[in-house]
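In response to the reviewer comment on reproducibility (Comment 2.3), we provide here a single inverse folding case reported in full, input and output, so that an independent group could reproduce the run without further information from us. The structure tokens appear first.
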């Protein structure tokens, strides 16, 4: 058995742990494993394919990033090419990819990625390619799994950053607005905001009223608490408004969200007269060593993916649904996002702690 591994989309702490578990689990069965470099580029001439042996993956469990490299612009169904004239266009290279996959003698593909990569995997599965998916996103917005590796690490990074902001914010009696990743899901903002005792948390799932945000800040002011911490998910939007975009991308790719933190900070400063600063934590949330939880989850995902290959269970994604890892049909995963339930215990906890959610 010859297994190929592809990693696509943004990197996430724990990704190398998944790769290592796949390689070692395959090795115990006498199988060979290969890594496709830079998404699918390694099979389409942009890079290459590397042989993955137990020696090659030794000592990578604790490392962030991915030894295979990754890209969020490598959709083989919408491959970007530049004509001699300099004009850019998109072409469908999926048939070419399937042919290259088969010519390489691969008998299974384990694709590790978020919604976009899993959708590509499903479309390749429909073309006859034997595919098993592993969910990868720090945003924790893939359906069919309670958690994806990288989320716990990202929350820990965000929590530590907010903790450090408390002292300087209180010393200067300011308002600090911290913008966190998560796109259209507020999992990182909610979990880290509660853990780091933020005063306001703005989520994409709950359109906010800036006047109510300011009312919370001024209530603290009147109570002698002359500083406030506001945590904002990058996809948060005001009531009646839209999420902030910093880049509109071409068809087949995802627009970049961002800038809501500075907009919220400016509005707070204008309405309250308080000195207000904003901070975008950005890609720090993707980096660093994975937590113990993410390392173990990544290793479990990788081993479970190889078991699915051994059972001939293709067209599925491995899901973490405690206490078990399950196999979820890819068709039930793609095109959907897992949002924070508004009646969840975590949201209720935030409200009962006196945290304003802007509504």
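Designed residues, in position order:
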């Amino acid at each position: 058995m010859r297994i190929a591994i592809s990693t696509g989309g943004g990197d996430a702490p724990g990704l190398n742990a998944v790769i290592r578990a796949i390689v070692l689990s395959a090795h115990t069965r006498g199988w060979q494993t290969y890594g496709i470099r830079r998404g699918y580029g390694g099979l389409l001439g942009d890079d290459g394919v590397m042989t993955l042996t137990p020696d090659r993956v030794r000592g990578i469990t604790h490392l962030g990033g991915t030894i295979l490299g990754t890209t969020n612009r490598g959709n083989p169904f919408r491959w970007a090419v530049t004509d001699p004239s300099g004009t850019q266009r998109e072409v469908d290279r999926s048939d070419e990819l399937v042919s290259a996959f088969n010519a390489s003698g691969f008998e299974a593909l384990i694709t590790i990625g978020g919604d976009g990569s899993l959708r590509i995997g499903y479309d390749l599965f429909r073309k006859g390619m034997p595919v098993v998916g592993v969910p990868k996103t720090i945003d924790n917005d893939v359906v069919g799994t309670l958690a994806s590796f990288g989320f716990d690490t990202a929350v820990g990074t965000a929590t530590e950053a907010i903790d450090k902001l408390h002292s300087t914010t209180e010393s200067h009696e300011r308002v600090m607005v911290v913008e966190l990743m998560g796109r259209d899901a507020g999992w990182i903002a909610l979990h880290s905001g509660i853990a780091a005792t933020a005063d306001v948390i703005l989520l994409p799932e709950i359109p906010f009223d800036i006047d109510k945000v300011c009312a919370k800040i001024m209530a603290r002011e009147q109570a002698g608490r002359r500083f406030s911490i506001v945590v904002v998910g990058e996809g948060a939007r005001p009531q009646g408004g839209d999420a902030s975009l910093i880049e509109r991308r071409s068809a087949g790719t995802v627009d970049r969200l961002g800038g809501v933190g500075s907009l919220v900070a400016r509005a707070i400063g204008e309405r309250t007269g308080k000195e207000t600063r904003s901070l975008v934590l950005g890609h720090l949330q993707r980096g660093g060593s994975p937590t113990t939880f993410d390392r173990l989850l990544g290793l479990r995902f990788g081993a479970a993916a190889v078991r699915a290959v051994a059972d001939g269970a293709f067209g599925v994604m491995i899901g973490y649904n405690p206490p078990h890892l399950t196999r979820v049909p890819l068709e039930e995963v793609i095109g959907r996002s897992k949002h924070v339930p508004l009646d969840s215990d975590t949201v209720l906890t935030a409200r009962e702690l006196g945290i304003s959610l802007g509504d």
